[in-house]
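Run log, item B.
One chain of 201 residues. Sequence copied directly from the ordering sheet:
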Amino acid sequence: MEKFTKLTAVAAPMPIINIDTDMIIPKDYLKTIKRTGLGEGLFAEMRYHEDGSDNADFVLNKPAYEKAQILVAGDNFGCGSSREHAPWALLDFGIRCVISTSFADIFYNNCFKNGILPVVVSQDELDKLMDDAERGANSTVTVDLETQTISGPDGGTIKFDIDPARKERLLEGIDDIGETLGKADDITAFESKNAESRPWA
């Protein structure tokens, strides 16, 4: 998993509440278990017209936001079904950080497992960041995980909270499997001791 330390990137505004996982990645794209290629389906129902052409009015289709890596979104982001394809699609598109006032629990947990930083801020702070994001290509925002701060284009800074264990895993780029492998010596020692004490098992 790619480490997340400090990200300076364009932030795209999506002032919509209750963006669910079906909006993030529609069910038509769930036929694969590969984590790559799903960026094409990210927000497909809003991003494309019925004939498959780009919807020029959708934020991520606008030239200023085509390479956005930060998403500033409305309350309750990632609600709905538990599909892990949602963070996969965000990551494959290039989104490394989502900022909102709240997230659905399963989506929030899945973000950490895939190298995406979900940041919870107050409504007043979100309003400020949304205003910053609406500046287009001038909406460069810096998210520093080490200091747990978000810095806007005007130099203002917002502090955010994060679970220390999750923070450390993102900084180190360690997912669930990586964390288990990091304890390989302890696991081997336990198995060896267990085999000696319980040879019949």
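Observations after the first pass:
- The first strand starts at residue 6 and ends at 14.
- The two ends are 36 Å apart (CA to CA).
Flagged for discussion on Thursday.
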